[in-house]
Structures are given as C-alpha cells and as structure tokens.
Amino acid sequence: MIGRDEAIARGIGCASMLDALQLGFLYDLARVAPDGAAAEAGVHKGGSLATWSAARVGRGRIIAVDNFYNRPANAPQEKRVARFLASMARMGIPCELIECDSWLGPGRIGERLAFCFVDACHGDEGISRDVPAYTGAMMPGGIACFHDYGTRKCPAVKRRVDEWNATARWEVVGFAGSVIALRCPYEVGSRTTTN
After folding, report:
1. Which of 21, 118, 172, 179 has the most neighbouring CB atoms within 10 Å?
2. Taking the CB of residue 7, how many other CB atoms lie within 10 A of it?
3. Buried b (16+ CB within 10 A) or exposed e, 19-51
4. What are the DSSP calls for 64-75, one per residue?
5. What pLDDT does 49 receive?
6. What is the pLDDT of residue 191?
C-alpha cells in the first residue's frame, strides 16, 4: 500500500481539483472502508482517484465512472479518455473505466461498493439521480462520499444529500472542505435507497 503522503502528492500531481486536506480525507476513508469494490463517479483527470485508490490496491476492484463529454472542449473525448487511462497506467493504478453517465455506473459495476466518491453531476437533475444510485449500491459498512457538499456554487448537492439522509439516517463520518462522508448501516434491511 502506498503511504498517505505519497498518495496525496500523486493526486496533486494529477492536477486534482481537491486540496491536500480533502485528498487526505478520501485516502483515510478508503483505507478504513471494508474490502470490496470501490468507485469514483466523475474522475476528470484522476487526481482524487489516484489518491484514494492507493489505499485500496488488492482489496477489490477500483472503478472510474465518467462520460468524459461534459468537459471543456480543449481535447476530443477520445483524447481525454486516453490521457486519463495513460495517467492511471503510469502510476500503476489497476483501474477499470466505465464510460457512461454517472448515475448509470452502479448498475454497470454489478456488485456492491465498499467505498465511493461522487464528484460528477452537481446540478439538481444529476445529483438527484447520483445520490440514490450510489447509496443504493453500498454494502453494509461501506462509505459514500460526495464532493461540493455545502458550496454556494453547487447548492443541489447538499440539498439532495440532506433530503435523502433525513430518511436513510446514515452515520455522517465527517467532513473535509466540501467533502461529506457517510457510512451505510450494518444492519440487514437498513434503509439504503430512496424512491
């Protein structure tokens, strides 16, 4: 396992949009989450995935979910995908890429998730689909994280996560910057999805 400081440096080296505090928080959460598949929705250049995946190597699948077309048009979609995959390969991250809209990812992954970081659709329409999709795919004890929680530029993230958790009642593990982490209840039959 790559150490925390090296993992954070990797994330920053990939031009992560997250700062060292948030990257370290994700690494720590990925480390304590149960063994099993782990995913990130909205990987962009891969900085956050490069960080938290260092704590997951050999513990289950590492999966990137992104459609790669809602990005600035500085490179064609195929080049952005190739650049992301090359970056992950250079760092030795055994990452699977599922190219689709973020909320479709859990259905294509095909197994429960031990850890996920959702940093994809920040508008109301997207996050209202992402929250039930990813929380509904978590295994008991798994940790789901959402970026841009509580920011003025993305108010829908906090609103939708809070609305969902008012019923689901997952444990709030903590916050770092604009990242919130919640743990899926261990009890069988826990409320883990919304209608």
Report:
1. 118
2. 24
3. ebebbbbbbbbbbebbebbbbbbbbbbbbbbbb
4. EEE-S-SS-TTS
5. 97
6. 46
Q: How far apart are the first and last CA of the chain?
A: 39
Distances in whole angstroms, Cα of residue 55 to Cα of each of 28, 35, 60, 98: 8, 11, 11, 21
Radius of gyration of the chain (CA): 15
**Nearest to 145, CA basis, from 168, 123, 178, 121:** 178
Residues 6+ apart with CB under 8 A from 179: 18, 22, 25, 26, 117, 145, 146, 147, 149
The residue among 191, 179, 189 whose CA lies nearest residue 25 is: 179
pTM: 0.92
Dig out the tokens for 38 from the structure. Answer: 């782990």
Tokens of 152: 């003025």
How many separate helices (H) and strands (E) can be counted in the chain? 7, 7
Q: Please answer whether residues 41 and 118 qualify as being in contact, where contact means their C-beta atoms are separated by less than 8 angstroms.
A: yes
Angle separating helix axes 124-135 and 155-168, nearest 10 degrees: 30
pLDDT for the residue numbered 195 = 35
Instruction: Please tell me the predicted confidence (pLDDT) of residue 101.
Output: 94
Using 50 as the pLDDT threshold, list the residues of the chain that sit under it: 188-195
Tokens representing residue 115 in the block:
């850890």
Domains of the chain: 4-183 (3.40.50.150)
